TrEMBL record, chain A:
Pfam families: ABC_tran. InterPro entries: AAA+_ATPase, ABC_transporter-like_ATP-bd, ABC_transporter-like_CS, ABC_transporter_ATP-bind, P-loop_NTPase. GO terms for molecular function: ATP binding; ATP hydrolysis activity. CDD domains: ABC_NrtD_SsuB_transporters (cd03293). The keyword Mitochondrion does not apply. Residues 270-305 are annotated as: Disordered. Residues 292-305 have a biased composition (Low complexity). This is ABC transporter ATP-binding protein. The lineage of its organism: Bacteria, Pseudomonadati, Myxococcota, Myxococcia, Myxococcales. Keywords: ATP-binding, Nucleotide-binding, Transport. Residues 20-260 form the ABC transporter domain.
From TrEMBL, chain B:
Its main location: membrane. The chain crosses the membrane at residues 65-86, 93-113, 119-140, 161-178, 217-236. GO terms for cellular component: plasma membrane. Pfam families: BPD_transp_1. The keyword Transport applies. Signal peptide: none annotated. Residues 55-235 form the ABC transmembrane type-1 domain. This is ABC transporter permease.
Amino acid sequence: MFRRLIERMRGLRQAAPYLLRPANVNADRAKISIAQLDHHYANKVVALKDVNLNVRSGEFVCLLGPSGCGKSTLLYALAGHVAPTGGSVAIDGKPIHGPGPDRLLMFQEAALFPWLTVRGNITFALGARGVPRNERRERADTFIQRVRLEGFADTLPHQLSGGMKMRASLARALAVDPTVLLMDEPFGALDAQTRVHMQEMLQAIWLRSGKTVVFVTHDVQEALMLGTRVVLMAPRPGRVVEDLEIHLPMPRSLEDPSLDAMARDIRHRLRASEGAALEAPPVEPQQRRTRTPSSVPRPSIVTGR
Amino acid sequence: MLKWAQKLGMIALLFALWEGLSRSGVWNKHLFPGPLEVVQTLIAMARDGQLGGATLRSLGRLTRAYLMSVAIGVPLGLLIARLAFFRNAVKPVVMGLQALPSICWLPLALLWFGLNDSAILFVVVMGSVLGISIATEDAVNGLDPQLARVARTLGVRGPRFYFGVLLPGALPGIVTGLKLGWSFAWRALLAGELLFVSGGLGQLLTMGRELMDVSQVMAVMLAIILIGITVDRVLFQTVETRLRRRWGLTA
């Protein structure tokens, strides 16, 4: 029986790469293009090093990696909350300077205004985006329905559960209708059950709206459940290791066995990238030799032959 | 229920002790009247309109001065919190002046405005405006950074940010500052009224002293305590509790 299990696992692992294919997006066809992005904080910590990423319109890209890999920094650079120290970030070919109406950032916390009701939070945001006063209420109610919060429109945030707060926050984000939705571990603070519900709801809404989403998470299952693409990142320095397309039809279910197989494969790759960094820091000459053969002095190659 | 019983029990105990001490004759009865006599004097003063008139005058002054303090203090606090010039240059001045007890302004006020209401108003305003502006600055700086960030990403700026995010976000803290400012103003007012003839509660106290009427002095003190508690506990406490509940700051 044990042997059969191993055989099955092996079979699944072989199936996984078929579902995960390297992504290849040209910069000129991309909605979001990030080129040679570097960022280091004032304390000299290198958060990002030479990150290149192109995202097509309507894609759902998950940035996946352990803490400290710079995934949140990358997201904040896209949002315009962090000004990167090097490289370029552009949306529709226009470089990003600060937050803009085409993008919206969602946080791990719902970040609702506590003195406003659910509807008040949405209408306030709509007002800031210049929606005429008489249209705000109707539009707010549409999105309250979309996240299934009917009956809670006049409730204050502190009277809602964690999941409901997040749904209200999602309704607010969708109501202002950005073309790019940036999400920073939005479900990280929720309990497991609620998280699954939120993932299913987000998927349904995304399938319907066709928005471009960049979603930061450290949860492999979550990334595979939601994304059309998963970008693996590694820390010290923060960088992109792999960029894979997920070929699995939507809507997906967390129970899908092929998802499990993919998750195992992804975890393996993440561990490999992290392990390499831990075992051999990039300053070691041996490491440098294997990584960039062009920089290796000629004589050693000659003796090698 | 138990809390109230304890509270009332303590007050009853104090009054009984006071009455007992007064009756024991340790001190001259004229200099240390018991609570029964003091309450009687209080009722008599309330009946002949002395107390009512003085209270109205004092509270009228207080209201005017306090409204001025709020009108100056809150915007000043906001400016200190938001503009570098005010933070660097004005804040040290405010902090320095705050170290001066408000009654110290009285001699200057008397020289500038003469023996009239304006002098007292000036002292009261100086006593409360700085406290209010410092509390406002604190409250604005203490705004949840998450809310500031979400306002940025939603593109909330300008007046909409000030009146829609910053002020409501800081409101619980500002109300605490207003409460503090009120108690500063109340103290400054009575100190001012004590020092020169003005027709308020403070003057009633001075009059009691001049007439050697200790029970009047004590009766007015009691009235001052009662008014203070009423405004503080009833008015401000209610507003503060409601606000904190709505803002979700209490469990």
